[in-house]
Every structure is written in C-alpha cells, then in structure tokens.
Amino acid sequence: MKALIMSDSHGWEKEVKMIVDRHRAEVDAIFHCGDSELSGNAAVLKGVETVRGNCDFGKSFPEEIVETVNGTTIFVAHGHLLNVKMTEMNLIYKGQESGAKIVCYGHTHVPAVVEEEGMVILNPGSIRLPRQYPEGTYVIAEDNDSKIHIDFYNLDGEKLSDLSKSFSKNY
Question: For residue range 16-27, what is the model confidence (pLDDT) as tens digits?
C-alpha cells in the first residue's frame, strides 16, 4: 500500500494539483487532512479523499475517513475536533476504534510521525503555512510486508531525510 497524504493547503490549487499529478500514478490512495479551503467539487480534489478542517465551510467533506487500502486501514481527521494541539490521546483512541494501522491528521501545521500503541500517527505538515519546519511538506506512506515507511517531501518533490522514518511491523 502506498498513499499520498497532505494537509493545510489553505486555498492553494496549483500546488495541490502539482503534488497530486506528480504522484498519482505511483500511489494507491490520496488523502487531504483538511483545511484545503476548496469546494467539494474542486477539480483538483477529484480522487482525493478529503476531510473537513476548521477553515473549511459547508458540508462538502466528512469530519473523518476510515479507509482500507490494499489491506492497510487508515484513519484521517483534521484534528481540531480531537484537540490535537493538546494531546494525541484522542487520535490514538480513534485509531484503535477504527482498527487503523496509520492515523493521519493536520491542524497543527507541524510535520511529525511517531509510533504509538502499534499505530503510526502522522501529520504531513502544511504545504502552505509550515510551522516548526522551514518549508512546506507532504508525505508518501508505504506499508510493505515488514515495515511502514513515512517519507516527507518538500513542494519541489525532494525527499526530506531528516523528517522521514521507518517503523517495523510488530504483528
């Protein structure tokens, strides 16, 4: 399983399209963790599973997504309703409830990835308004037989080795 994950693009269409076009042929799924600030029928989001963030208005996007892609269950939420700026516990609970192996969120704009309770919890950062990192980021997550690889990239498609991590599967 291979998935493209981005978040917090805050109205950027050209950049979202560029990232999606760059990776669409190599991934099995594409997720946007909210605050796209685009309409649900925006052409650039066609084929992109998108959740609603605190800056997204209307009912075009669900609050959460649980999807199994080639055997890997992924939970996606923006995070503002789960209090992610204070604690990861609500993400952990949601991941456990949904049987997720990968839990994705946005909202903080801070790129991060950790393993907790047998799940990989990741924030791809913000492509438009990065915090605690000097440039915008997104993620390619890959789950193979023995490991889950989380590779962070900048807008130019360059891998950011200082953020990227791999996790052994213990199940």
Answer: 999 999 999 999
Using the structure block, give the residue that is written with the tokens 């084929």: 47
- The per-residue pLDDT for range 21-66, each reduced to its tens digit, is 999 999 999 999 999 999 999 999 999 999 999 999 989 999 999 9
pTM, entire model: 0.97
Distances (CA, A) of 124 to 145, 150, 157, 170, 171: 23, 9, 14, 23, 25
Provide CATH code, domain 2-168. 3.60.21.10
Q: Which residues pair with 68 in a beta bridge?
A: 73
**DSSP string covering the chain, please?**
-EEEEE---TT-SHHHHHHHHHHGGG-SEEEE-S---S-TT-GGGTT-EE---TT--SSSS-SEEEEEETTEEEEEE-SGGGTTTT-SHHHHHHHHHHT-SEEE--SS---EEEEETTEEEEE---SSS-SSSSS--EEEEEE-SSEEEEEEE-TT--B-TTT-EEEE---
pLDDT at position 102, please? 98
Beta bridge partners of 76: 65, 104
Residue 169 has pLDDT above 90, yes or no: no
Nearest to 70 by CA among 27, 13, 129, 114: 27
